[in-house]
Amino acid sequence: MTAIDRLLNNYARQVRLPWAARSSGKERVWFAVYPPAEERRVRARLPQFEALTLEANHGWSTVDLTRLLPEWLAAHEYREDIFQEPEYFSANSELEDLAVERVRQACAGEESDAASVVAITGLATLFDFMRVSSLVERVEDCVRGRLLVLFPGEYAGNVYRFMDARDGFNYLAVPITSAENFINR
Predict the structure, then answer these.
(1) 91, 93, 144, 167: which has the fewest C-beta neighbours closer than 10 Å?
(2) 122 inside domain
(3) How many domains does the structure of the chain reveal?
(4) What is residue 128's predicted lDDT score, i.e. its pLDDT?
């Protein structure tokens, strides 16, 4: 069984567990953690995550942030200058603000309710431009059902490391990993 198959099995187990109605925003966030090298394989298997969610009688929607950076750059007033001297480029908080807005819109959408999963994909494309921990902290208050963060990185000792490169952050989210017999709360 591959790591992605185990991740899917562990996700299937997690999504079928009863959901506590009175959980905090932090507890409504699930991190599906996988090695960054598996990003394309996980993305290719996204329909299986959706199918498992629907089989568990929950709704499903996705927020794909893959094109956020190129769309932002294409519309940027100083894009030509950025391309000429990329070493001086800084997205500051503008890119993160756009990501937060997209996730919040998905969480507030008609198809998103207390019994649905909103999945965030494409975070790897934003590596070095924004922090996942900051994004999650800014949207956790609008999560009505569950927020599934497809997280290329690692999880060990209650610490998440994005793309195996950044200093880790400790977060109260529920980790879903590809470890065998991974049982969660």
Answers:
(1) 167
(2) yes
(3) 1
(4) 82
What pTM was estimated for this model as a whole? 0.90
Assigned token pair, 174: 């529920």
Residue 111 domain-assigned?
yes
Is residue 182, in this structure, part of any structural domain at all? no
Start-to-end C-alpha separation, the chain: 24
Q: What percent of the chain has pLDDT over 70?
A: 94
Domain range for residue 33? 3-17+24-176
The DSSP result for the chain, as a single string, is: --HHHHHHHHHHHHHHSPPPTT--TGGGEEEEEE-GGGHHHHHHTHHHHHHHHHHTT-EEEEEE-TTHHHHHHHH-TTHHHHHH-GGG---TTHHHHHHHHHHHHHHHSTT--TTEEEEEE-GGGGTTTS-HHHHHHHHGGG-SSEEEEEEEEEEETTEEEETTTSPPEE--SEEE-S-TT----
pLDDT at 185: 45
Specify if 184 maps to a domain: no
| pLDDT of amino acid 89 | 73
